[in-house]
Amino acid sequence: INAEYGTASHPTTALVSGTMVTVQSKFVKAWETIWEMESEADGWKSLSHDSDLPLSIDARTVAGSSIPMIRARVVLPISLDAAVEALSSRSEWEQGAVFESLGDYDDKTKITRTCYAGVGPVSGREFIDISRTDRAPGYMHATAYIDAAKMPRAPPVPKGVKRGTIMVSGTVLRSVPEGVSVCTLNHIDSKLNMFCKTFANKALPGRTAEWCAALKQAGLRVMARMQAAEGGTAAESGDNSTAWIDQDLARIETELNHSDNENDSENQDLRRSLQTAAFKSAMDAAYESWDVGQLTQDEYLAIEAAATSGLALEAAREQLDQGLISATEFALIADVIEIGMGRDVERSASPEDVLATHCQQVLARAREVDQEPDWNWVNSVPKELTECQLEYKEKGALVMVRVKCVMPVPPTIILDTVLRGGGLPKGTEKRVLQTLRPDLLTAWVSVKLPMPFKDRDFVFGQWVQLAEDGECVIVQTSLDKTTASQICPPTKRFQRGKILLQAMIISPIHGTNKSIFTWLSCVDPKGSVPSAKSMTAKSTAESVVALQAAALAQH
């Protein structure tokens, strides 16, 4: 009996959980389970989740076990190759997980130790697995995992961590017309007590949705790198930095010219659709290349300017409305396109002017959103607010919140309260980082979340506008990741989120000392948080109540 599950040349039996079995037979059983459960329709109970992805999460009982099997299935708009590469680099994007290779069992089988950070009352967990992959190039890529916790090569269990057991685990990727279908199956004993198991079960759907969203983003970044590698970077192509965009557009025209479709309207729709896709791909690739340092800022701006088009923005907005892209993805596309308008001015503009221009564009977007119909009412309005409307609108996986109320103080008092840093709700801390000019600054704010969720922090620009009619406006929007890290490096204490849109519009009620106060906010907290709708609406209302109390005290 080989002490380490046999070898490739001599696959002898091995001792696993007190039973004499071979690695091969364990994998045979694992593959049988994976192929059967991937498409099995009966016996599953659907688990609810809050995600804009076409995701289903199911659970089913397993004979002889008190632990259910969990299946998640989702279709992502990325290629099969991109999904495979993204999964091979999970350590780069899967939060709270550390992967350590323990070597190869043979040329087809890897041994890995995976450690997951503890959350709340649940201490850290680790698993030792042997994995094997089955491939059908261009069509399917599947990986099965079996438990290897008993093997001598497994390292000692660290202090404060418990080692779980893998009964069966697998991931199946299949190429489909919409991109790639992903199916994950997990029957795992995490060695949890009843209290922690209840907590973990409640968090499971949210964590699964979060994992799928992270895989999607990682796959999109891989696709951007693939396209950049195929087309070459701006630095490689010199002044003709947008040649690869032009090639895409030329290909579109060639396809249309050879089309048998004589319907001009349909051809125009097809052209618009393909052009939008070409622009989006170009901007994604350029942004990714700039973010990782493969492009200079001027090179990135040149590509961005070439891809700038109102058509692309409208197409992206239409995709958002149809649920094809998330609010976060739309915000990135909109930032790239809208900031590209008037790029010739911004090429020589100072960073302060660029930030102020971006804040102005955020304000314009906030006024547009304020006029949109179909807001959802929240019934529990704080009694401290007069004539108050508390509403929300779902934007993909995120939530836009709107608060409208009458405050018994003039706009200038509210403005002064905000600028002095007053009116923050309990558990919130704010400090100014830079005063760039009288109407513009950068700041940091932290928000305390209930256990077991990690506290959040944000680094943002704040711009103020005073109108002749007495209206006061305060706009806040996150700085880009690089700039934010330079002026306020992230710490382990906080998960850094992103303020996509936040605007306070304070209008005077002439002839009185009152104001009509409107607050619009859309924040991406990043990572797992409590129910987004209830928490976001509640926290926004609490912020308005605190601001009103501080303004009244100052008045």
Describe what you observe in this structure:
The protein is of the alpha+beta class and 555 residues long. Helices cover 38% and strands 31% of the residues. Strands 3, 4, 5, 6, 7, 8, 9, 10, 11 and 12 form a ten-stranded mixed sheet that branches. Strands 13, 14, 15, 16, 17, 18, 19, 20, 21 and 22 form a ten-stranded mixed sheet that branches. A two-stranded antiparallel ribbon has the order 1-2. The longest helix is centred in the middle third of the chain and has 38 residues. The N terminus is likely disordered.
Main traits of this protein?
ten-stranded mixed beta sheet, elongated, 22 strands, 14 helices, alpha+beta, 38% helix, disordered N terminus, 555 residues
Give average pLDDT, whole number: 76
What count of helical segments does DSSP give? 14
The main sheet comes to:
10 strands, mixed
Span of the ends, CA to CA: 83 Å
| Uncertain spans | 1-21, 232-245, 339-348
Report the C-alpha radius of gyration, rounded.
Answer: 27 Å
Class by alpha and beta content: alpha+beta
Helix content: 25-40%
DSSP strand (E) fraction? 25-35%
Question: Using DSSP, what is the number of strands?
Answer: 22
Shape: elongated
